[in-house]
User: Fold these one by one.
Assistant:
Number 1:
Amino acid sequence: MYQITKDITIGEILENASETIPFFVEMGMHCLGCPASLMESVGDACMVHGVDADDFVERINEFLMQSNDKKED
C-alpha cells in the first residue's frame, strides 16, 4: 500500500495516488498543476495553508488504506 509522509512531494503523491486530489483542494490548494506546488512537500503545503500536517497525513493514509482494502475485496 502507498503511504505518504510530511516530507514527500505533492508531485509524487499525485503521480502515485491521484485519488487524493480532493484532500488538497479541500485544504485550499487549488494550484495542483503549478510546477512549484508539485515540488513542495506535504509539510510545507500544510504550513502555507494553515493545516496541521500530522492530521492531514493521517487522514490521507487512512483514506488510502480504506481504498486499498476495497480493491482487495
Number 2:
Amino acid sequence: MDKIDIKNLTGKCLISLTDFSDEFTDALIYVCAHNSDGAMGFVINKRIKDFMPSDLIADLNFNLPNLSLPVGLYNGGPLEKAKGFIIHSNEYHRHDSIDNGGGIAISSSLEVLQDIFTGQGPQEKMIALGYAGWAPLQLEKEIAENRWLVTEATPELIFAHDDAAKRNLALSYLGIDYENFTPTIGRA
C-alpha cells in the first residue's frame, strides 16, 4: 500500500487506537473534509438503529408512499447531533451532493432522503446524526500521537452491513490481522 499523505485526509478512514472514554472508542471514521481549516468526518461503525420512512414522515411532512426501506442510522460524532448527513454511493447525484471521490458522496438534503424512501435514491446509503471535527492541525497531531491509524476508504468498507466487521476490514487494508492486533503501545 502507498504511504498516505496526512496533509490531505479527505476521503480516507481513521481507525481509533486510543481507548477513548467517549464515542470514539473502537471508532472507524470516514473523513469527508480535511484542509487548512481543520477536518470533518463521520463515525461509520456505530449504528443507532435502522431508520424507517415512518420515523420522518410525521416530523417533516413528507408525502411518501407506504414503504419499508430501512436505512442505517449512525451516531456520526459528538458535534451537532441534531443535524443529519447522508453518506451515499456516487452513482446518484443531486445538486447539493459533494462527490468525495472513490465512489462516495455526502449530502444533507431532504430531497435525497425523499428519493431514498421512494426507491429512487443511491444504491448504498447511511445516515449520520452529528459529526466529528478537528481544529487546524489537531488531527495531524493526534495521528502523530498514535491515536489514529489512517487507511483508504472504499464503498465496500463504508457501506458494509456488518458494523463489527468494518474495523477488521479497515485493519486488513493495512495488512493488520485483527486477531493479533492490540492498540496498546508499550515501552521496552
Number 3:
Amino acid sequence: MATALSRRSAGLLILTILVGLAHHADHVLRVDHSGWPFRPDVTPFTYSLAAYPILLFALLGPARLIWLRWALLAAGTAFTLWAHTQVETPWMQYVMWAENRSLDPATAQFQNAFCIRSPGLGVAAVVISMTLNVLLSASTLSVLWDGLKRNAARSDHPG
C-alpha cells in the first residue's frame, strides 16, 4: 500500500515513536505527571497515549488521506508543545529527578519511582522531552512537504 510519505518522513515518524516511548516511560518513572493505566487517576498523560495511534496513522495511513494524516499529526504536535510549555515544563521534569520532588501543586507529595535525587536523570528527561518536541515538529513539516509534493505531482499529471 502506498503511503505517499518520503523516506525522510517515515524515518522521522519512526524516530518520533521511539523517543515518545522513552518520554512516556520517563513520565511513568517520574510519577507526578503520569496517570492511568499506571496510576488510578485519568490525567493529561492518559490522553497523551493517543499519540501512538495518531503517529501510526501518520506513518502507515493511505496516500489519499495524506491531509488528514498531516492534520492529526499537526494537532498532536501542537498539543505536545503546549503541554511541554504550560503543563509540564522542562524545569518540572528536571526537578522531579534532581530533587525528588514535584513542582506541580496537585502532586506536591509525589516522589519519583526510585526515590532518588539524580541531576543526570533530570537532564536526560529534559533532553528526551526536547528531542521529542523537535522530532514532532520536523515530522509534521516533512509530512506537509510530502503532501504538497503529492498535490503538485497530481496537478502535473491530470487524469
Number 4:
Amino acid sequence: MERKPIGLYIHIPFCRQKCLYCDFPSFAGKEGLMQGYVDALTKEIEKRAREYADRTVVSVFFGGGTPTTLTIPMLQQLMEALWKNWRVEAGAEITTEANPGTLNREMAEALREMGFNRLSMGVQAWQNHLLKELGRIHTIEVFQENYRAVREAGFQNVNVDLMFALPRQTMEEWQETVKNIVSLSPEHLSAYSLIIEEGTPFFDKYKRGELLPAEEELDREMYHWAVEYLNEIGYEQYEISNFAKKGKQSRHNRIYWQAEEYLGMGLGAHSYLDQERFHNGYDLEEYIRAAGEGSLLKEEAESISEADAMAECMFLGLRLTEGISFARFRQRFGKEMKEVYGRQIEELTETGLLEEAADGVHLTKRGIDISNLVFEKFLF
C-alpha cells in the first residue's frame, strides 16, 4: 500500500501568561485542566491514527500557546502516543515551540530524548522594555540562558521568531535585535510585523487611543533592511517572512504554503485533508469531554472545489520566493496555469507585481510589499 505524506499539527492551548497581542486559542491560569487535556489529546492522536492509517508523517509541529508549559511527563505521554500509533518517516522534522521562560537544561534534554529535533523560540525583541510592553514572560537575559541550554542539550536546528513595527520601536532597536540574534547563529529566522487583532488587549488599547501602531513607511523600512541584511550574511529568504541557512527551511511550513495535506489535533486545530478543510471546536472543557472522538470535535467542514484548490495553490504558493512552477501546477491539476490564470498573470506582470520566468511565476519585491492585493486577484 502506497502511503500518502501528511503533516501533523498538535495544539497545546496553555501559557504561563497570555501575550497582549495574541489571538490564538490559548489560556493562562488553567493548570488544573492540563492533565485532562493531555489525556483527551492522547486519545485523539490514537483515534486519528486509525482513521488515517494510510498516511506517513513527514513533519510534526507542536504549537500553542506554549507547549513547554506542560510538564515533562505530559509531553512524554503525547510523544509516546505519536510514536506508537503513527508511521513517522525516518528523518521527519519534529518541532515544538519552546518559548523563553519555560525552558531549562532538563526540559531541553527531555525534548531531545522524546524525539524533537527542531525548536522554535518566540523571542520577538531584544530590548526588555519592548518585551514587557508585549506581555512576554521572559527577559532577553532569560532567552540567552535558555538558548545556551538548548544548544548544550544537542539541538542543531533552532528557529527564532522576531516581531517588528512594534509600538514605539525604533529602527535602531530593530537592527540591534536582528544583529544580536544572528550573532547566536540560529538555523532559521521568522520575522513578522505586528498585527493588532480584534479580541486582544492590544486592540482594546488601540481603540482607546492608548496604542499607536507603527507608520507603514517605518514598517516597510524595517522589513527591507532585514531582508537585505539577512541575505548578506547567509540567511536565504525562502518565504515572505521566513529566512533559513542552507538546508534548514521548515518542512512543516512548506506544507502549508504548498497547500499539501495536514491534520490538526487539539483545541481549535485546523486540518486540510481529502479536499476538505475543517477544524476542532474552541471550547476547552468540551474538548476534554469529547475524549478524542472525531465526530464530536469536527466543526465547519468545507469541501474544497477544484477552483478553490487552484486559487489556494496560487496565493499560498506565491508566498514562497521561488513562486509556483508551471510543472507543479500541471502535475497537480492536469491543467496549464496560464489556461486558468492567464489574465491575472498578464495584468500582474504588466504592473510589476509578478515576474514570469521560464519555469513559473513569483512575486517581485514590490509585489511582496502589497502581496495581499496580489493574492486577491486569484480569488475571483
